[in-house]
Amino acid sequence: MHVSPVESSAPASGPLAGLKVLELGQLIAGPFAAKTLADFGADVVKIETPGAGDPLRKWRLLKDGTSVWWQVQSRNKRSVALDLKDPAAQDIVRRLAADADVLIENFRPGAMEGWGLGPDELLKLNPRLIMLRISGYGQTGPYRDKPGFGVVAEAMSGLRHLTAEPGRVPVRVGVSIGDTLAALHGVIGILLALQERHTSGQGQVIDVALYEAVFNCMESLLPEYSAFGAVREPAGSALPGIAPSNAYRCSDGGYALIAGNGDSIFKRLMATIGRDDLGRDPALADNAGRVARVVEIDAAIGAWAAQRTVDEVLAALDAAAVPAGRIYTVADIAKDPHYQARGMIEHVHMDDGTELAVPGITPKLSRTPGGHRRNAPAIGQDTDAVLREIGLTPAQIQALKDQGIVAGA
Asked: Fewer CB under 10 Å: which end of the chain, C or N?
């Protein structure tokens, strides 16, 4: 079990050490992108509203008044409290951007321009700046000015339509998957732009739309419609067009997910459940044949699973090298030995000395891994230090505080 200190005085390490990132925006998509960069050594300065801070601080379950989610989303960051609506604060952002490698924002299109902080202005100050802009519908197009949240993007992309049992109300994925996918696409864009900057010496703007990030993951949805006029419909726990792959109820009331859709895997699965007749059937030797008879195959697997507990099913399939697994709750995750062995559950010390389990760092880099250097900051915790770094004197900083333009911890 790895336990991180509240804050480490060691210099940042990792493949992005030395990269200066300015994070504007709030909640999920932009901050998740910045968190990913911070995990791998980037110096992320997060701009928050004085007093309230990022609304995520108060989302879901709170410990001592602050969301425990905040400890994941904002670890390894520094917090500066600025009122972005004030011209003096906007000038501070320009000074920070002039020395930054990357700026991340996820306001509605036009907000940054309204503050004099659009790409035209900032790239004049710093031609090497890479600016990631995440929004619901992108910076162009007829929907650009509509408010867009991840859940709406999931619906527009086609994902929500498929996430349901046939004939029932579509349900949402239980996490903010649209925001997270957009954030990861944004990180990819930043890394691509950094690579290109080595050649050109120039920065650029990365335009990520929430709906496009989800749509990019929709596999064969559009080409099947284009080629065949096929509108893919919800299929519950099954995977249409790929067989067998489904969740099967077991005798103890639990479900086993079984993916027997490889040709040789299917034969091993049928042997395990005592249905060699299906495994040897030449009509079922490939996926197309199995899809045509998926109801029959699912019934055979379901009948076998219904007579065994989840543990018994998984033990038999593990022995036969058939991909299978249980549906984990977070309690299962917290005690799972593989999560532990891979370092995916870290325990960090909170400011009050208690420990908190948080997700570990991913992906795993062999030579320059990421790490948890410091806990998520209090609102404005680093205001004074960051403003001194761009040349403001203590007297100037105090004057800004007196005017309510900036705030410290």
From this structure: N
